[in-house]
Design brief:
Layout lengths: L1 H6 L1 H18 L3 E2 L8 E2 H4 E6 L2 E6 L4 H20 L6 E3 L5 E3 L4 E3 L1 H12 L5 E3 L1 H10 L2 E2 L2 E2 L1 E8 L2 E8 L1 H4 L12 H5 L3 H4 L7 H24 L8
Parallel strand pairs: 5-8
Antiparallel strand pairs: 1-2, 3-4, 6-7, 8-12, 9-10, 11-12
Helix pairs in contact: 2-4
Length: about 230
């Protein structure tokens, strides 16, 4: 965001506005799940605050319903941000978090952990801390026969790190305008208006899209291999 602001502050403001729109849309959802007797109304369980291009999404409790509300909001935020041409990295953590909404004060180990794992990742994706991953595994989140949380060698600034991540290419498979496999250029083209041609990116920035495409293509292919063939129309 700093580079974009220095190059064109109006475009940077447009991107921040798009991110705010994505957040609003992603938290206006009601979940109906076979795992819970009652619907989960995300606006009643999830709160958020925005600091420039950083978004904090949190709940006031620690329950399976809270986790599903947070996770669903985050995956939807990721989807809507991409469709609004905002490249985004997300970390999900679980633990102690303090919030004083009246004084706009937010702190705690969980906040630092979520920020660190999100910022360290060198791709567009959603990384879960070990504690958050346990909650995800306990809920056995699936689409078809594919897990919605999978282990992956996450590219970071200090090399690859094995971690649990949201399998968003499968969770959001119906939203792809170009079905995978994708090339780096095909993924990047939606961001080109803001950041210029792919060929002009710094190597470190280009690598984020290369890493993302590798994840998309592999998870999408595994999902399609495991999915039963569609019944022919009669």
């Amino acid at each position: 965001m700093r580079a974009l602001t220095n190059r064109d502050h109006q475009e940077a403001w447009q991107m921040l506005s798009a991110l705010e729109i994505a957040l609003t849309r992603s938290t206006r959802i009601t979940i109906v799940s076979e795992s819970f007797a009652d619907p989960i109304h995300i606006p009643e369980m999830v709160k958020s605050v925005v600091f420039s291009d950083t978004i904090i999404i949190y709940s006031n409790a620690d329950s399976p319903r809270d986790f599903l509300a947070i996770f669903t909001a985050v995956v939807n935020l990721f989807s809507k941000a991409l469709h609004l041409r905002v490249p985004i990295r997300i970390g999900i953590s679980k633990g102690i978090f303090y919030a004083d909404e009246q004084r706009s004060m937010y702190a705690g180990p969980a906040l630092i952990e979520a920020y660190d794992i999100g910022e360290a990742s060198q791709w567009l994706g959603i990384v879960l801390s070990a504690s958050a991953a346990k909650d995800a595994i306990a809920q056995n989140l699936q689409k078809g026969t594919s897990n919605i949380v999978v282990d992956w060698d996450v590219p970071t600034k200090n090399g690859t790190v094995k971690a649990s991540v949201a399998n968003w290419p499968v969770a959001l498979e119906d939203s792809f305008k170009i079905p995978p496999p994708l090339t780096e250029q095909e993924l990047y083209q939606i961001f080109e208006e803001y950041y210029g041609p792919f060929s002009m990116l710094r190597e470190s920035d280009a690598r984020k899209y290369i890493n993302t495409v590798k994840f998309i293509n592999e998870q999408y292919a595994l999902h399609k291999q495991a999915s039963p063939p569609a019944e022919p129309e009669r």
